[in-house]
Fold each of these.
Amino acid sequence: MTQDELKKNVAQAALTYVPEHQIIGVGTGSTANFFIEALATLKAPPYAAVASSEATATRLRAHGIKVVDANTVERLAVYVDGADEIDPQGHMIKGGGGALTREKIVAALADRFICIVDSSKQVSTLGKFPLPVEVIPMARAQIMRQLTALGGQPRWRQGVITDNGNVLIDVAGLEISKPVEMEALITQWPGVVTTGLFAARKADIALVGHPTGVHTQTFA
Ligand code: 5RP
């Protein structure tokens, strides 16, 4: 089974968690794209969606799903998104697609975060995937020095500007055994918009695609 087939299977499995006629949050990336395709096949689709990126908003509309501004909703029943890594507690690294800040905003609105991944994303400790950090452009060099002092090897994702007009730094070489603490630490540095660590608000449920089927993990 290919990785795309595993992603399609988890995207399909996530439909079980989509409430009828409500507003849901939709993530960004190739797995989220499969989820959008699956959503479009529903007989009773959600009323609308809050998108975690411009790319997702465009794709949702192309599939006939109404997109609403995050400012118009107080809560979402569910947020469905992929991840770059997920640990056994449900902490994640996200942002490989550069949408980390809006993903975190939409996740914060949601009662339940359903993470959809193929099994290659499961890790015992986060950090093999370089941690994305969204930074206000004038703070880039300073934040890179601070990330180096933390033991990482930061790399500026040159040529990429986020939907929010900021730059991205990818930090390799971090072994993140305390994700909640590291998220809080980096997030407080002036100039950091957010990190790709989703630890304070982690996944509630992971749907993990294996060749043998979709495994469901629930996190306390
Ligand atoms: C985008 C993300 C994605 O969820 C993450 O990069 C996983 O992507 P994919 O589903 O393509 O493997 O965080 O910012």
Note: The chain has six helices and 13 strands.
Amino acid sequence: MRRVRVAFASLCLALAVPVAPAVAATAGGSPHELAADGSALDLRSVALGQVDRELVLTVRARSRIDPAELAAGDGRLCASLAGDGGSSRLCVERRAGAWALSSGSRTVEGQVTQPAAGTLVIRVLPSALGLRPAALRWSVTVTPASCSPASAAQTGGVAPGSAGGAPVPSQAPCGSRAPRGEGTYAGRVWRAQVTGCTRDGAGQVRRGARRKEVALTYDDGPSPYTRPLLATLDRLGVPATFFMIGQQVPSRAPLLRRMLASGHELANHSWNHANLGGGGPGASSQLQRTSAAIRRATGFTPCLFRPPYGSTGADLISRANAQGMTSVIWSADPLDWRTPGTDSIVARVLSQTGPGGIILGHDGGGSRTQSLAAAPRIIAGLRARGYRFVTVSRLLGYDERIALRR
Ligand code: ZN
């Protein structure tokens, strides 16, 4: 009986855990409807919008889009994108039974899906096309493989304009273009600003899932050591998570914005590094002031909290939870705050880190020259063992919350 009751209690707890839905930020993307032009791959509508960080181009044809019609070398569908933030021509082709994206002679990372017979959806990061956030003019052309090269040359791969409802021309054009004729549509690459993270209801964690991923974390900043540490991390392409002391935040707002823009995560480490292990309303106030300072400086609301000195308790965990934060301890502690020497810091981290590891370090609170010198060696050592570096939010499987701004 007792066992049943325990199981029931755990079930209630599991059900009570609030899980915030991950809602994607979207902008643009209304379809432009097109009159029939009678071509072999007649475009019915096109739409370009942005979902979180990705541009999404949705192309609908009047009939099924046969992948063979876009076989590399014979047919292709291309979008011309031009604006103040750069210009690019993105093309979709079928290569060896798979969709491929290219820009000029360059392969572009992205995703192409065919959710319905007559629909292609292309997702790509603007940065992969060299596009920065700005206004954009765009158009789409499609030249199916069934076009003879002569016919394509004659029409320039583009259908002549045809008024809505007009009879299909007796000699069907080869390619199809949106808009009809020579124009372009107005669009935009939006600036994707990270405003927070969507967490699960976890109270406290010491490590992530046991994948080949680890998270570097730095406490007690921001400080004069933060900037040189960022230079190293950014040069090596490693995102880190910074647990910050709230009272040090307001004077370093531009640095925090840069950290966020480079993909680092900002997190809460109390207002003045008091020992909050006993909980109580004072602890709530410390957490609240710090999150507010980070939000004021950057627009980002942290979803992670690390208790100063690792000193924690049930009340503190639930107070952090009530403010939308998971408490994060660590799985590897090099005791770098004691300045034991760079070799010792590196050796301790490498010996204590396994899959899903959360590595503690410090970028404030004293001389951090050794911690900074250890960073590239820790990164090289763990990469050599096949680990990938992610933020703590990513390690825990949390989604970013993104707002799209002009
Ligand atoms: Zn600390």
Note: The chain has two domains: 31-189, 199-405.
